[in-house]
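User: I'm new to structure prediction. If I give you an amino acid sequence, what do you actually give back? Let's try with this one:
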Amino acid sequence: METTNSYYEARSEPRYRIVKKLYLRLAESEPLQKEEVITENISENGMCIWTRMQIPVQSRVYIETPEKDFRALATVIYNYQSHTGLKIITSKGKQFLFS
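Assistant: Good question. You get back a string of structure tokens that encode the predicted 3D arrangement of the chain. For your 99 residues, that looks like this:
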């Protein structure tokens, strides 16, 4: 597994360049209203995703893999253009993100 460049290494946790397809849903939306997103990098307690949605900072979202072997509740911590940073609050199956 390759860690990312020095920009990310300066953060509190190492980031890994792992590209995975996930589904994202706002916590207050209907269960079937999902958007397909792609991870840019993943750390132990968060990730950066590419999304078309502009989600307000501090919003809560649900994310999961298409196979549903990973599921999480996360908080949006930043938005920059199409990049959204998520901090994982609670999750199940995190090992599937790193495989």
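You can read the tokens as a compact description of the fold. Here is one thing that stands out. The first helix runs from residue 6 to 9.
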